[in-house]
Amino acid sequence: MSASTSSKPRIHFLSPLRIVMFLAVVWNHAEGFARARTADDPIAEVVLSLSPEGRFLFITITAFLIARSASSSSAVKRVIVIAWPFLVWSVLYTGVEVVANGPGVGGVGSVVLSILTGSAAPHLYFVIVTIQLTLLAPLIQFLARLGRRAQAVLVVLAAVAQLAVVALDLVIAPTGFPVGWLCVAYPLWVIGGAVLAANLELATTWFRAHVVHLIVGLAVFGAGYIGIATSTQDPGAFGTDLLLRELRSVWNVLFGLAVVATCMQLVASTGRWSEMAKRAGERMQDLGYGLFLAHELFLHGLATALAPVSGPVPFALLTLVLSVGVVVGTLGFVVVVRRTPLSWSLTGRPMQRRVTRAPALVTRA
User: Fold this and answer.
1) N or C terminus: fewer CB in 10 A for the chain?
2) 19 Cα distance to chain centroid
3) Which pLDDT value is given to residue 133?
4) Rounded Cα–Cα distance for residues 302 and 66 (Å)
5) CB 364 within 8 A of CB 69
6) Handedness of CA 103, 177, 135, 56 (dihedral sign)
7) Angle at 63 between CA 275 and CA 55, to 5 degrees
8) What angle, rounded to 10 degrees, do the helices at 125-135 and 137-147 form?
């Protein structure tokens, strides 16, 4: 049996996982917009602080696919495919920022820098990190090979490094240095993706056997976190803030394990939900890059449209309204764009009259 044939059924779990990832990213960004437009709600703030961070799933999936890549194309070629839509959207977001607030104190220079770095929109660092990981493909594939023999050691070292990154991020936060723009800020998620790729059959068996335990453990840990967060006297103190950040980091790891296990269990079944998840995930693979690039623009537009009435709306409810509206609007927009000559520039995919499953940017072994 060929490698491609044998691997195809086993990685179906990526289909629903991509959907969870995108929904989590949109929710994370909608929270920021809702928080700035509603009154303080301490309880909702604590509960929603446990919202899973989609960027971690994104990094894991990217590292997983790179580790399993059998593509003969060069890293530079793949970077160009990723970078062109990034630059187009960076120009669009920078233009919106200039129209709304002017070019800033740096004039033309700051505008050019904003375009090249994607700093006009907070989500474009996803692409910067993806480019870094793509260029580091040989290292990630080496880690995957190493992960076949020493997976436990690698994961433990990566977990310790990840906790150290969380502490470093808090310490240097006053400087404004964007730690999250560097792929080295995600050691556990990068190595986790590589180790999962190297031990997929064994990992799939383990995840499917422990899906209930992981979900229950996630719920218990979340309840414990809420108890600690609501009982602290001074949540702004350095020690307390560091503790809560580290706990949220652990929560995101547990969430990632639980959602991967759930997705593996879902696609292993033969029911209607399994087929729907696979088909939706395949569509997500085709539309995903465009969705990530475009959703922030729709978030700005919807938040602006709701601004006159959003004040009295509860924080959690406004987050939900923004998230649902952005998902629906962005999905419709990208589906239409995929069928126009603008598809390549705005979604990184060639124009199609009918949206179908397209090959990934990295080919699976």
Assistant:
1) N
2) 10
3) 93
4) 35
5) yes
6) negative
7) 80
8) 70
